[in-house]
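Margin note: ligand = fe (iii) ion.
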Amino acid sequence: MHRIGCHISSAGGYLAMGERAVALGANTFAFFTRNPRGGSAKALDPEEALAFQAFCRAHDIDRIVAHAPYTLNACSAKENVREFARMVFEDDLKRMELTPGHCYNFHPGSHIGQGVETGIDQIAALLNDMLWPEMTTTVLLETMAGKGSEIGGRFEELRAIRDKVHLKEHLGVCLDTCHILDGGYDIENHLDDVLDEFDRIVGLSCLKAVHLNNSVGGLGCHKDRHAKIEEGALSREAITRVLCHPALRDLPFILETPNDEAGYAAEIRLLRGWCGEA
Ligand code: FE
Ligand code: FE
Ligand code: ZN
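Resulting structure:
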């Protein structure tokens, strides 16, 4: 059975998130570790964390994919913004260890005129300060659409960050289907070639999660506008190939499509049907 889920509101805490996910037919999910625009995180006490873990085991949820806030920019030109990124990252990773063995996904960042190389250095420096040998969480760099000065729109940039990180075993990649199409990787017509390229440059073993989104714009548009799963540039066939590809099918698939909860439940059902699990 595929792991398919969606973005869930973190309101009400961990157990409430888990219950909401299961009610939608999901067996994985994503959530913002705090308000997507930044702000403070809700406290998680160890007891609630244990209850959440038991709930997950009972409902065959073995991997969730937390998302760092959008405002986190490890390679901002402003020092106070980079400092904020460190604060958030450190605090989030500490909390993640209360629910061991999951993923923490973040946008590598936008270099805002500093240049790609400086950006990559700053992102790698943050990771080298944040990762520690005994951690159980896997930190994921998200593939980006290459909007503005975003880093991570090219596989080479993800490779360059990885090359500079010491504890590579704690670092993976989350493949966002909207973002890579917008970045110019033709997963509509040439999924195998794109994955071969990813394998050559980064390594398929680094892939730990997929953000399954359709895209309003077309190949190479660099727009980053998500579409519902049956709308947008990617066909049903292309999305099914992503879901069922041997290199991807065991990963958690997270919908970040513009939907309310009922819409997500319908898309999860639809996708299970497309891969013959309905
Ligand atoms: Fe994201
Ligand atoms: Fe995404
Ligand atoms: Zn996006």
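The chain has a mean pLDDT of 96.
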